[in-house]
Amino acid sequence: MVKNAWEVSETYLNKGQAYTLTVKDSSPPVAPIGLIQYRTFIRISFGEEERSNPTGCWRLWMESRGKNEAHRRGGEPRAIEYLDDIQDGGGDNTRDRVDLQQAFFDGFCITWTADPSASTPECSIPLRFNFLSTDFSHAKGVKGIPVRLCVKTELLSPKNDVGMAHEPELCYRKVKLFRDHGAGRKSTNDVRHAQKQSTSSINGLRKQKEGLVPPNGDASIVSREAWHIPDIMRLRTQKDMASTQYMLSSACSVSYLDLRGNKEDDPDLYPIRLSSDGGRVQVEARGRQSLSRSNLSPSDSKISPVSRTSSFEAVDVDPSYRAPSGRPPKPTACFYARFAGEQNFYRAIYLMERTVQELAEKLSAKRQIDPKYIVHVLHINKNGLPVVVDDDVVRELPEGQTMTVDVCDATGMECNDAAGGSTSPLEIKLMY
Question: How many structural domains does the chain have?
Fold first, then answer.
């Protein structure tokens, strides 16, 4: 349940309950030779605040619940597990097409073969969560930590399709785990709270229109003509009502993993392993597969001194190189823009600050346009209404927002260039 379309929603789940996660390939290989096989890796990772110390979070879970419930799963701690003993209700051969490759305490990896008779390759994966959101914090009785349910899927075979991109896809969904039937109770409470807010907003607006509540809160008798409601108060009330109505309509029984994962969410690049000495947790910032040195060959023209590190050998090393002392500033936001008239691909737009000027400059740079000719930026909503984009709008845009960008002439306006001549002003229209 979310208050607006820009808020990142959370899915409420119950610990110990069996769920089904369905993976579909929306762009399967065309006329493949042989069977289509995929690899799917499902793991639990943390958000921005807890990502700096995932070791501590998993250690808390291990000490409080992981060890105590490991005997239920053959002595192995499993925060999330693949349920290979679930009977298929549809009578298909899904279980025959799925092979569990590896199981870790924070996730598991399977390979699956698409049904040749199906028009869209898909796989239903039964799983269960064995943790609570409060397991990752010392403070009990408070709100639990939302975690990321990450899914990485890649095509294994065939890989000989011309013009088809088969890069792995990594997506995630924010989830919260509750005890017993706590997810249903939390969802019901959210609905009741939203309904109460909606009723309160409607009653408040009705009283304001009738003149029963003066702006200063004075309980004395005030006539209808003695005061009027400021527009800002009326708009604020209407905004609250729209927000609560959106909350009531946003709850759904099926959740989609529609957020793009970061590299830290990749289970192959940033695995977390458990050591055998007392259940301690250690983080390895390398792939689960060992690094092969066969791809690192010396240059044919010149062989430079070899620099040895703990995991690989490097060639063409400049011994006079010194790493820069300061770290470059990091972007504060990343959006994905597809310009009108281009093919169906998006360009990454990185903002150093969340302002409309920064957004206009970055978009202008992608189109090789002088940003001084941009007079304004508009957001064309679903109803076709143009809304002026300011710093507040840019600040509330969700991370990874996709948008269609149209740079066109601004009608009825004129700009002067440095030479004193006039030129056609431009406006940027955003559609998302």
Answer: 3
